[in-house]
Design a protein that fits this description.
This protein is globular. Helix 2 runs parallel beside helix 4 (70-87), helix 9 runs parallel beside helix 10 (222-229) and helix 10 (222-229) packs across helix 12. It is α/β, with parallel strands linked by helices and 273 residues long. It starts with a helix and ends in a 6-residue tail after the last helix. The model has no long low-confidence stretch (mean pLDDT 95). Helix 9 links the parallel strand 8 (186-190) and strand 9 (210-212). The chain is 47% helix and 16% strand. It has twelve helices and ten strands. It has helices at 3-15, 40-52, 64-67, 70-87, 103-116, 129-137, 156-159, 168-180, 195-204, 222-229, 243-246, 251-267, and strands at 19-23, 58-61, 92-99, 121-124, 143-149, 162-163, 166-167, 186-190, 210-212, 237-241. The longest helix is centred in the N-terminal third of the chain and has 18 residues, at 70-87. It has a single domain, classed as Aldolase class I (TIM Barrel).
Length: 273
C-alpha cells in the first residue's frame, strides 16, 4: 500500500476519525485578533490546528486563499506546513490546488508542492490525461487525488455527459482506479452532495479512497456519505468540512460534532468483510 494511504489509515484508525479539516483561511473572515500578526493566516491556522487536531485525520489548505495574498499568504502556508510537519507529522496534508497541465509544467508543480512545501497529496484535474499527469503519478511516495464527481451545483455540465454509454464521472472513476493507480497512490474527489453517484463510484472503485468535499456549508449529509462511500474496511473516506469548523466560535466543538456524526453513521452501516 502507498505510504500516504498507510499514514492516513493509521491515523484514521488511531483516533477513530475520517474527518478532514479544510484550512480555507479567507483573510476577510479571520477574527480581528489575528490580523495584527505578521502572518495572520498562519496564526489563525495554528490556532485552528491546536483546537482540532485530536479529531482530525487530514488537513486540506486551499491554495487560492494563500495565493490571493501574494508573498504574505504563501509564507503563511509555508509556516503552516512546517508547523504540521513538526507538531503533527502523523496527520495527512492535502494541497487543494486542482492542478493539471502538460507534463513539463507539472514537473514544476511537483517540485513546488511535494518537495518545497512538503504536502503529502494534491488534488488534480484528469482532463489532460495520464500522460500529462505522469510527473505526479510517478511519485509513489505521495498521493494524487483526481477530480471525479465534484460537489458544486454545476458539476453535471461536463461530468454527466455520456462517454461510451456511461457518465463521464464513471469513466474517470474506472480509468483512475483500474489503469492509473499502478502504484496505489491514486484517490478520487467525490462530492458529498451527490451520494447516489458516490454509491456507484464505490461499486466500480471498491478499494479507492475518496476525498469528500461538500459537508456542512454546501449541504452534504454525513450519514448519506458514509452509507454510500464507506469501503469494505470501514474507511475509504476523507470527509472534508471547512467553513463550518474553522469559522465557528468553538472549532474544537464543531470538529468533534462532525467526527461524532461520522462515527454514528458508521455504526449504522453494515460493512461486508
Amino acid at each position: 500500500m502507498n505510504t500516504i494511504l498507510q499514514k492516513y489509515n493509521q491515523r484514521a484508525d488511531g483516533i477513530r476519525s475520517l474527518l478532514c479539516v479544510g484550512l480555507d483561511s479567507d483573510f476577510s473572515r479571520i477574527p480581528e485578533r489575528f490580523k495584527s500578526a505578521d502572518f495572520p493566516q498562519y496564526e489563525f491556522n495554528k490556532w485552528i490546528i491546536d483546537q482540532t487536531h485530536e479529531y482530525t485525520a487530514s488537513y486540506k489548505p486551499n491554495m487560492a486563499f494563500y495565493e490571493a495574498y501574494g508573498e504574505l499568504g504563501l509564507t503563511a502556508l509555508k509556516f503552516t506546513m512546517r508547523y504540521l510537519q513538526d507538531e503533527h507529522p502523523e496527520i495527512v496534508t492535502i494541497c487543494d490546488a486542482k492542478r493539471a497541465d502538460i507534463g513539463n509544467t507539472n514537473r514544476g508543480y511537483v517540485e513546488s508542492i511535494f518537495d518545497q512545501l512538503g504536502f503529502d497529496s494534491i488534488t488534480l484535474h484528469p482532463y489532460l490525461g495520464k500522460e500529462a499527469l505522469a510527473p505526479f503519478l510517478e511519485r509513489s511516495d505521495k498521493a494524487c487525488i483526481i477530480l471525479c464527481r465534484t460537489s458544486n451545483p454545476g458539476a453535471g455540465e461536463f461530468q454527466d455527459l455520456e462517454s461510451n454509454g456511461k457518465p463521464l464521472w464513471q469513466t474517470v472513476a474506472e480509468r483512475v482506479s483500474h489503469d492509473w493507480d499502478v502504484d496505489g497512490n491514486c484517490m478520487l474527489v467525490v462530492g458529498a452532495t451527490y451520494p447516489e453517484e458516490m454509491r456507484k463510484i464505490r461499486a466500480v472503485a471498491p478499494k479507492t479512497t475518496f476525498l469528500v468535499p461538500g459537508v456542512g456549508a454546501q449541504g452534504g449529509d454525513v450519514a448519506a456519505v458514509v452509507s454510500a462511500g464507506l469501503d469494505a474496511e470501514g474507511r475509504g473516506l476523507m470527509i472534508s468540512s471547512s467553513r463550518d469548523i474553522i469559522f465557528n466560535e468553538n472549532p474544537a466543538a464543531s470538529a468533534r460534532r462532525v467526527r461524532d456524526a461520522i462515527n454514528a453513521a458508521k455504526g449504522d452501516v453494515h460493512v461486508p468483510r
